[in-house]
Amino acid sequence: MESIEGDFRTPVGRIALLAARFNDLVVERLITGARDALVRHGVDEDALTLVRVPGAFELPLTAEKLAASGRYAAIVALGCVIRGDTAHFDFVAGGAANGLMQVSLDHGLPVGFGVLTTNTLEQALDRAGGKAGNKGADAALAVIEQLNLLQQLESDT
Description:
two-stranded antiparallel sheet; about 20% strand; globular; alpha/beta
C-alpha cells in the first residue's frame, strides 16, 4: 500500500500570521510560538506577514481576504476565546472555527487553527507556551506539513 503524508521541509511561499488582539496576553505568546516554529523550520522571517484583527470572530473574514489575494501559500490563525457565563463563547468559537475551515476549503489553502477555546485564563496560558506546549507553534507546524502534502499531491497528478 502506498502512503502519502506531509513532512517538515521548508515550505515555499509567504505565510500570513493572522492574530486576534482580544486576549492579547495569550495571543502574543501564540504569535511568538508560531513565528519561532516557522523560522526554526526554515521559513525566512521576510516571508511572514503579521495581520491583526479585533477578535476571533473577525478572523474568518480577514482570512478570506488574505486567501483571495493570492499572495499567501498558507495562513496561521491565532486567537483565544475564554468561556464566560453566557452562550457568547459558543457563537464566537464556533463561528471562528467554521469560518476558517470554509476559507481553507474554498481556496484550497492551508489554514492552521491556533484559536484556543478554554474555560479559564490559566488553561489558555498553559496552552500558549506553558505546561501544555504552545498551540500557536502546533498550528504553524500543521501548516508546514499540510503545505508539503498538498505540493506532493499536486506533483503526483
